[in-house]
Amino acid sequence: MKNIIIISSSIRTGRNSNRVALFIKNFIDENKLAAVEIADLNEYKFPLFNERLKFQKEPEKQVLLFAEKIKTADAVIIVTPEYNGGYPASLKNVIDLLNDEWKKKPIGISTVSSGAFGGAQVITSLQFTFWKLGAWVIPVTFPVPNVDKAFDQNGNATDNEAAKKRATVFLNELIWYSEAKSRMI
Ligand SMILES: Cc1cc2nc3c(=O)[nH]c(=O)nc-3n(C[C@H](O)[C@H](O)[C@H](O)COP(=O)(O)O)c2cc1C
Asked: Three-state DSSP class for 6?
């Protein structure tokens, strides 16, 4: 069974995109698609980036734990809100912190917004950054418009059938990439 880490990026007070992270986690668990864990950046509360982990002399334990999770994951899902057309500082903070851990890592992206466009403008900057790092961003995405209406606080979807259908396509693709990778090494 593959091991998937979901990064819940928003650390905003009253955040809503974490609902999507919960939905995806529950969907993976219920369908036994993989072992899955949420890496919640709001719980880690990492300090602002000041150097890459590999150059830090005395890295914090929680940073090492996070890095190990990413390194050993077969795939990573990023759940990110769109803030002014970009992704949040909290996410950039951990992307830049790591380096080798991202290389050849299958990554699925879920963009989230409270508006009608599902964070469509955040996707290209995030894809580009992960391409620079040598990660394998899958082409299927999981955009979520109107997040506060689409999911409740526990990650239950308002239109569960539609959400399940889209999640299946997204996760099948991500797991395909992680299986393809394991055949190469
Ligand atoms: C600083 C800020 C900037 C935002 N910019 C955008 C934006 O560019 N496009 C958009 O669709 N929604 C934007 N929104 C609305 C967010 O999509 C909405 O707040 C969403 O719930 C964000 O995820 P979060 O609740 O997990 O923080 C913005 C929200 C904030 C707080």
From this structure: strand
Q: pLDDT tens-digit profile of 30-60?
A: 999 999 999 999 999 899 999 999 999 999 9
| 153 in contact with ligand 1, CB cutoff 6 A | no
- Decide: 17 in ligand 1 pocket, CB within 6 A: yes
The DSSP secondary structure of 79-145, one letter per residue, reads: EEE-BTTB--HHHHHHHHH-SGGGTT-EEEEEEE-SSTTTTTTTHHHHHHHHHHHT-EE-S----BS
For residue 10, the ligand 1 atom closest to its alpha carbon is: 26
User: What residue type is assigned to position 137 of the chain?
Assistant: V
Residue 85 backbone dihedrals phi, psi, to 5 degrees = 80, 0
Distance between Cα 61 and ligand 1 center (Å): 31
Q: Give 115-143 pLDDT, tens digit per residue.
A: 999 999 999 999 999 999 999 999 999 99
Q: How far is the C-alpha of 151 from the C-alpha of 69, rounded, in Å?
A: 27
Query: Which pTM value belongs to this model?
Result: 0.98
Residue-wise pLDDT for 81-90, tens only, equals 999 999 999 9
Q: Looking at ligand 1, which residue's alpha carbon is closest to its atom 1?
A: 83
Ligand 1 contact, 125 CB (< 6 A): no
